[in-house]
Design a protein that fits this description.
alpha+beta; eleven-stranded antiparallel β-sheet; 210 residues; 24% helix; binds fe (ii) ion
Length: 210
């Protein structure tokens, strides 16, 4: 017979706030469906307008290679870095209606929504090690639209983050991270700085641990 107090504890689940700020999880695979084929078709229509991303960065003496971006929600399609100016859907989003529908279905898009961007890492490209902020927290969502086998996203002290095509991850980018694409295919991800519904975070965490 399990004591009642333990039965009660067995039923307990953490809140989204605890999961994001206190769990210490370096990443959380989200339990959402990603229509990768439709998004890839739309990406191909606009890919020619992508721009070089953070090409001026230098870490440990080297720059990123083959990293390009195109903004769906932000200041404009070609502003791919952080900005204090007002953010809204760009004309790229209007030309990618299935992509936008998916984002509006899974995330809470509003006045506080930041950038949402296509991110391309070309064949043979790499993203040099960096951290995006200091305080540990699961924040941005990185969605693998096409993640070629052999392309790796690594996080300091946490190894390879298990991306595969169709998988969306909340990431704690206070950990140093870097990406290599030694394959012959482009890696296409979407990075989304929008609120994830608490119910999605809590369901995803529960599914992976209980
Ligand atoms: Fe980063």
């Amino acid at each position: 017979m399990i004591p009642k107090i333990l039965q009660k504890l067995n039923q307990q689940r953490p809140t989204a706030d605890w999961i994001c700020r206190r769990s210490g999880a370096p990443y959380l695979p989200l339990d959402i469906q990603v229509p990768t084929q439709a998004i890839m078709e739309e990406w191909h229509q606009v890919a020619g307008e992508s721009v070089s991303h953070r090409s001026q960065d230098h870490t440990i003496g080297q720059s990123h290679k083959g990293w390009r971006s195109l903004t769906l929600h932000g200041v404009s399609p070609s502003v791919t870095t952080e900005s204090d100016l007002a953010h809204t859907w760009t004309e790229i989003a209007h030309r990618c209606p299935q992509t936008r529908l998916f984002l509006e279905r899974e995330f809470q898009i509003g006045p506080d929504t930041g950038r949402i961007r296509f991110m391309l890492l070309a064949p043979g490209g790499h993203i040099m090690p960096h951290q995006d902020y200091d305080a540990p927290e699961l924040t941005a969502v990185n969605i693998a639209i096409h993640n070629p086998t052999g392309c790796e996203f690594r996080m300091m002290n946490h190894g390879v983050v298990p991306f595969r095509t169709g998988r969306a991850m909340m990431l704690d980018l206070s950990h140093r991270h870097w990406v290599t694409n030694p394959t012959t295919e482009p890696r296409i991800h979407i990075i989304c700085h929008a609120r994830v519904p608490d119910s999605t975070i809590e369901r995803s965490y529960t599914n992976s641990r209980y």
